[in-house]
From TrEMBL:
Annotated protein name in UniProt: HMA domain-containing protein
Keywords associated with the record: Metal-binding
SUPFAM superfamilies hit by this protein: HMA, heavy metal-associated domain
InterPro entries the UniProt entry points to: HMA_dom, HMA_dom_sf
């Protein structure tokens, strides 16, 4: 499956130069890797080459650093958070109006009911 060159992005917990050095060592030895970039600030490792995402994940995981796929953990969360908040805010805005509309006839009926009972 590693016939085509592809890019694999991982989120790797790296807190120091030793951490990034360990990742660099394993990627340098990994077969099929053409280039790689280690971004300490974003905790992101980008690997390009004739590799599979699973192989890159397993290789980087051997460093003992917490590793996950970048797309699965970082990007969707960041992209989905504002989108998820918008519908929730809209629903929260609409919900009281719907509740008020539902309660208003009930309140009117409750107001009308006592005079009917009083007349009887």
């Amino acid at each position: 499956m590693a016939a085509e060159s592809q890019t694999v992005e991982l989120k790797v917990a790296m807190s120091c130069g030793g951490c990034s050095g360990a990742v660099k060592r394993v990627l340098t030895k990994m077969q099929g890797v053409e280039t790689f970039d280690i971004d300490m600030e974003q905790q992101k490792v980008t690997v390009k080459g004739n590799v599979t995402p699973e192989d890159v994940f397993q290789t980087v995981s051997k460093t003992g650093k917490k590793t996950s796929f970048w797309e699965a953990e970082a990007t969707p969360v960041q992209a989905a958070a504002p989108a998820a908040e918008a519908p929730a805010a809209a629903a929260a805005t609409e919900a009281p109006a719907a509740v008020a509309a539902t309660e208003a006839p009930a309140a009117a009926a409750a107001t009308e009911a006592p005079p009917a009972n009083t007349d009887a």
